[in-house]
Each structure stands twice: as structure tokens, then as C-alpha cells.
Amino acid sequence: MLRVGLTGGIGAGKSTVANRLSEHGAVLIDSDKIAREVVEPGTPGLAELVEAFGEDILGSDGALDRPALAAKAFADEDSRKRLNSIVHPRVGARTAELMAAAAPDAIIVHDIPLLVEGGLAPMYHLVVMVDAPEEVRVRRLVEARGMAEPDARARIKAQATTDQRRAVADVWFDNSGAPDIVLAEVDALWADRLTPFEANVRLRKPRAPMSPKIASYDETWPVQAERALARIRVVAGDNAVRIDHIGSTSVPGLPAKDILDLQLTVSTLDRADELAQALSDAGFPRAEGEWYDDAHGEEGTWPKRFHFGGDPRRPVNLHVRSQETPAWRLALLFPEWLRQNPGERDAYAAVKNAMAAKHAGDGTVEQYTDEKQVWVDAAFARADAWAESTGWTP
Ligand code: ADP
């Protein structure tokens, strides 16, 4: 199943987006709704709240009186922690239960206001952010929801900043215009990204081969890479010796194929095999077959594992390499040498552009890669000499 985290500042219009995705067939999990359900009359959650904060948090109908609870629970830090220790585990358990009940081919949309604040972004295959300028959100909260303006402003202040949201958002919807505008964008997201993403992950479907196409350097590449690295970090845990953004997209100013190369370094390939299933499920399916790196003049080849990103709009290559061969070090040295030597970077750019032009109609990148490799192999010797003279180590 595919897990989509849907979030955004209060009043941005998450519900509009969530409802449309649900109409398309997404399984909607609404955090706010669950938070209310776990403390409904008759629940153990409500009983525990009463035990902690007293009978006067209940209204005359026996239901939770939220303002009365807030007055007690937000009075001091200990009370706030007590409230969270009662509500959070119950919300977590119910959320996990709903996710586990979804079909294997489900696209789950988790509407979770505090996704950014809770550092939860890496737990999702994709994070969708709904945003609108602060003034627009305040106006909506006041006019449509009847909130007092100072309250609306205080709620917005307490939430994550736009920069914090930008960093984790794979998809950014600006919902400051008419609802129809964002709804059309949601329709396209469903058809062009979520549906094929889910199928790619479930069926472990590799990317279709294509001709080499070189894009100008994109300064968001490192930020996009960091989001993927964060997801891999969660899965790999202590099995990761290190996780890095490598390849041409990690070299500022270098044009490249718009595919992020990432490297997970493990102590042995047994560790890689143990992680294969979890990485695949997390959105990075393992590629079939045997994969290896050329041993650059040494006998034989260096085996590795290869995974690819399932997101059709964010191509990723994930190389899982063992510390037992020199390949992982070389993969870190080469881009670092290019970053430190702009002349070499520009020479490499010229080679890439020439080879991509020559092979623009191939339908695969194989010939392009092979011919480019002649320059790269020679460059490795210069990069090694540079490492020697500067004392560079990974
Ligand atoms: P939240 O992101 O806090 O869940 P809602 O989805 O409840 O926000 O939206 C807040 C309010 O703004 C609602 O009353 C909703 O109907 C309204 N709204 C949502 N999108 C738009 C839009 N594009 N234009 C005008 N009002 C909108």
C-alpha cells in the first residue's frame, strides 16, 4: 500500500484536498476525527482523562467538554504531558489499526495537521502540502469557521513555518485561488503520480528505459535527495554505515540526467539483503538480477544491490554497496572531486552533453553510459591523485 501524508497550516484547505482524493478511491485516515473518537463517551480513553483531570472535564451530557479540559491540561507542562500520554498512544494504535486493515493495493491518505511538527514526513511514501498565504487562511478561519481573529493568528503562529513545510513537501498545492484550481491539481496528482507510484511499489516495476536527456543543474536536487535519504534512514536504522546523495545531481552547477543517485553503505551485502524487503515497501523497490560495479583495473567486479524509486515524478537510483569493496568510497570521492575542481566539472559537463546529443535517439542510456565511462575512468586516476594530495577521506 502507498502511504500519503497530507498536511498544511490550519485553514489552508486540507479537507478540500482530502475529500477529492477520497472520491478518487483513496482510503482516508483523519487524525482529528480519530482524536475525537478515542475520547468519546464510553471509551477507556475518556475514563482515563476523567481519572487524571476530574469529573468537571465532562459536560452535562457526559461528553468531553474540550474548553474545560484545555483549561486544566494546558495549565502546566506536567498536565500537558499527562494529556498527551493518554491520547497519543490511542490515536497511534487506532491509526495503525486502520492502516493495517487497508487493502494491499490501497492508497492511504493520512490527513495529519501536525505531520511537520511531529517530524513524521519520512514515514510516508509522499508528503502533500496544502498552503495558502496567512492572510487568506485567517480570513477563512474567521469567516467560514467563525473563529475569533486573534485565535486564528495564535493557532497559525504555533504551527510549523513555511520553510519547515517546504523542506518536507514532495507536492506543494497553493490553495489561495478558487477551489476548482486546486481540485484540478489533485486530479492530476491522483492520475499521474499516486496511481502509478502505488503500482510501481506493489509490482516492483522498474522504470521504463529511456534515451539520455540532460537537464540543467537544479538547486532543489539536494533538498529532494534529503527527503529520500530521510526515508531510507528510517528503514535502514543501524544497518546503515552511512547514507549519501552521490552522482552528478550532487555537484552544484553540473548538468545531469534528472535522476537522483543515492548510496546506502552497509557493512556486508548480507545486511543489504536483510533490508531489501523493507526498502522495497518504503517506496524503493529492489531491482531484479545481479548488479555490480566495474572494478577499475582490478580483477573481477564489485557486487552491489540496486533499488529504484517508485515515484514516477521523482526518479531515484539507490545503490546499496558494501564497505568490503572500494566502490562506495569511489562513489563519494568522484562528486567531491568535481565539487572542488570546477574545471573538471565543466569538462565532464561537456562530455555528458556531447554523448547525450549523440545518443538522444537510442531509447536506452547504455551506449551513452559506456562511452562516457571512458572519460570517467581516466578521471578516477586524477581524483585519486587529488585525494592523495589533499588528504581527503570519505
Ligand atoms: P484545514 O486545512 O484547516 O483542514 P479546511 O479544509 O477546513 O482547512 O478549509 C478551511 C476553510 O476554507 C473551510 O471553510 C473551507 O471550506 C474553505 N476553503 C477551502 N479551500 C478554499 C478555497 N480554495 N477558496 C475559498 N475557501 C476555501
Write the layout of secondary structure elements.
Layout: E1 2-8, H1 14-24, E2 27-30, H2 31-37, H3 44-53, H4 66-73, H5 77-101, E3 107-111, E4 126-131, H6 134-143, H7 149-157, H8 162-168, E5 171-174, H9 179-203, E6 214-215, H10 221-236, E7 242-246, E8 256-257, E9 260-266, H11 269-281, E10 291-294, E11 301-308, E12 316-322, H12 327-340, H13 342-358, H14 366-390
Parallel strand pairs: 1-3, 1-4, 2-3, 4-5, 9-12
Antiparallel strand pairs: 6-8, 7-9, 10-11, 11-12
The chain binds adenosine-5'-diphosphate (ADP).
The site of adenosine-5'-diphosphate has 16 residues, from helix 1 and helix 9.
Mean pLDDT equals: 95
Biggest sheet, strands in spatial order? 2-3-1-4-5
Small molecules held by this entry: adenosine-5'-diphosphate
CATH class of the largest domain: Alpha Beta
Using only C-alpha atoms, the radius of gyration works out to 25 Å
Name the overall outline: elongated
**SSE order:** EHEHHHHEEHHHEHEHEEEHEEEHHH
CATH architecture of the largest domain: 3-Layer(aba) Sandwich
CATH topology of the largest domain: Rossmann fold
Number of strands: 12
Helix content: 40-55%
- Helical element count? 14
Proportion in β-strands: 15-25%
**Total separate domains:** 2
What does the largest sheet look like?
5 strands, parallel
Enzyme class: transferase
EC number: 2.7.1.24
Protein name: Dephospho-CoA kinase
GO molecular function, one term: ATP binding
